[in-house]
Design brief:
The protein has a domain of about 100 residues: Orthogonal Bundle (Cytochrome Bc1 Complex, Chain D, domain 2). The chain has ten helices and two strands, in the order H-H-H-H-H-H-H-E-E-H-H-H. It has a two-stranded antiparallel sheet. Helix 2 crosses helix 5, helix 4 crosses helix 8 and helix 8 crosses helix 9. It is elongated. The relative contact order is 0.08.
C-alpha cells in the first residue's frame, strides 16, 4: 500500500462522515436482525396459537360426544353432573386419566377403572374445559418431582391428609359409603392434581393453603413411604394401632389361651 493510500485511509477515518457511516451501518444491522428475529417469533407464536386452537376444537368434539350428557353442551352442568366452568385442565386430566370419568354408574363415589382415552384425547378435552374458564393447570414435571424434603412432607401430610388417608397413605373409610383411596402406586401428577382440584370428598389445597413447595414435599414423602419398607417389620398394611391392637388381641391372646389349655391338659 502506497503512502498516498495510507494517508487517504487515515484521513477518511478522521472524517465526521466516517462516524456517521459506522453508526448508520450498526443501526441497519441491528434493526435487520431484530426484524428477522421478531418475524420468526411471531410465526412460531402464530403456529402455536393455531395448534392450541385446533386442540380445543378437537377437545370440544370429544366433550360433546362423551361428557355433554351429564355436564351440558357448554360445560354448564345439569342435574346429572356439575358445571365444569372454572375447574381447569388439572381436574379433567385427573378424572379422565385415572379412569374415573366418564362415570358409568351413580354411587357414593367414583372409583378408578380402565382409561378410555389416549393421552392426546385427554389433553384435548382438558384444553377445551380450560378454555371455558380459568382453573388449575396440569402440573409440570418440576412441580411433581420427588426431590423435596420428605421429613417436612411427612409432617404436612400428617397435619392435612392423614385423618382420611392414614399416616402412610394406606387409605381409610369415610361416611355414607365413601372412602379415601390408598395412595400407593398413584402417579405424582394425580396426587398434585387432587390437592389443587379437590375431587369428590377431598378439600381443595390451593397455593394459599399449601404452597407448590409444600405439595412437592408431600409427594416426596409419599414416594419415600412407598419405596422404603417399614424398619419395624410387617406393618399390617400401615393401618395403624387399632388394626395392630385388634390383631394382637385376637391372635396373640388366642395363642396364649391355647397354650394355657394345652399345658393344663398335659398336667392332668
Amino acid at each position: 500500500m502506497t503512502n498516498y493510500m495510507k494517508k487517504t485511509l487515515k484521513n477518511s477515518r478522521r472524517s465526521p462522515l466516517a462516524a456517521i457511516f459506522v453508526i448508520a451501518a450498526g443501526l441497519i444491522m441491528s434493526g435487520g436482525s431484530y426484524a428477522v428475529a421478531t418475524a420468526a417469533v411471531e410465526t412460531s407464536t402464530a403456529k402455536t396459537a393455531i395448534s392450541a386452537q385446533e386442540q380445543i376444537v378437537e377437545g370440544e368434539k370429544l366433550f360433546l360426544a362423551n361428557c355433554a350428557t351429564c355436564h351440558g353442551t357448554n360445560g354448564v352442568g345439569t342435574k346429572a353432573g356439575p358445571t365444569l366452568i372454572g375447574v381447569g385442565a388439572a381436574s379433567v386430566d385427573f378424572q379422565v386419566s385415572s379412569g374415573r370419568m366418564p362415570g358409568q354408574a351413580s354411587g357414593p363415589q367414583l372409583d378408578k377403572k380402565p382409561v378410555q382415552f389416549t393421552e392426546e384425547q385427554i389433553a384435548a378435552m382438558a384444553a377445551y374445559v380450560a378454555s371455558l374458564g380459568v382453573g388449575p393447570e396440569i402440573p409440570t414435571a418440576d412441580m411433581i418431582a420427588a426431590n423435596g424434603d420428605s421429613a417436612r412432607g411427612g409432617e404436612l401430610f400428617r397435619i392435612n391428609c392423614a385423618m382420611c388417608h392414614n399416616a402412610v397413605g394406606a387409605g381409610g373409610a369415610l361416611t355414607e359409603g365413601k372412602w379415601a383411596p390408598a395412595l400407593a402406586g398413584v402417579p405424582a401428577k394425580h396426587v398434585y392434581e387432587a390437592m389443587v382440584t379437590g375431587p369428590q370428598n377431598m378439600p381443595v389445597f390451593n397455593d394459599a393453603n399449601l404452597t407448590p413447595q409444600d405439595k412437592k414435599d408431600i409427594i416426596t414423602y409419599l414416594n419415600y413411604v412407598e419405596t422404603n419398607p417399614s424398619a419395624g417389620g410387617y406393618e399390617l398394611a400401615g393401618l395403624g394401632p387399632v388394626a395392630e391392637g385388634l390383631f394382637l388381641w385376637i391372635f396373640g391372646l388366642g395363642l396364649i389361651i391355647l397354650i394355657t389349655m394345652w399345658l393344663g391338659a398335659k398336667s392332668n
